[in-house]
Design goal:
By secondary structure, this protein is an all-alpha fold. Helix content is 51%, strand content 0%. It has one domain. The protein is globular and about 60 Å long.
Length: 148
């Protein structure tokens, strides 16, 4: 799928196009956003031993989240290319197996990426909808645009 990320393409393949919304969320989200929502530490643990340095595995995970598919080739081929370029090692088919396993383990978390919850039981601020439970006094700062 040209233009989508390698990780999103793998997810689509594994889920046989059933979760179109979740795959689009993955495709448009950056690695930094995904790191906050998904447990990449378990993937990193699965990939231990496939990289010389910890930084290489981090760069690999970032690359599969950020790199867009450039051809209609299989995502497995893209993963192989990314792995070899980030690690400098010969590709092992177990890498893609561990990624697919991790995607299946995190399926519910991936599917919930597009669900925005808006709850506030404290009566205070609810940033998602910009509500406050009471009047706000003593706001400090100059919120006027600079005039130059």
């Amino acid at each position: 799928m040209i233009g989508t990320t390698v990780l999103a393409t793998l997810y689509l393949f594994l889920d046989a196009h059933k979760e179109d919304i979740a795959s689009k969320v993955i495709a448009s989200a950056s690695y930094d956003v995904l790191k906050k929502s998904l447990n990449f530490s378990s993937l990193k643990k699965k990939l231990t031993g496939f990289f010389k340095k910890d930084e290489d595995s981090e760069r690999f995970m970032e690359a599969i989240c950020e790199k867009k598919m450039m051809t209609d080739s299989a995502a497995d081929d893209e993963v192989k290319q990314i792995y070899e370029s980030t690690s400098g090692l010969v590709y092992d088919d177990k890498v893609i197996s561990f990624i697919k396993e991790w995607l299946l383990e995190n399926k519910s978390a991936i599917q919930s990426l597009n669900i925005v919850t808006n709850s506030n039981n404290s009566g205070g601020f609810n940033i998602g909808s910009q509500n406050a439970g009471r009047n706000i006094y003593n706001i400090q700062g100059d919120f006027k645009p600079d005039k130059k």
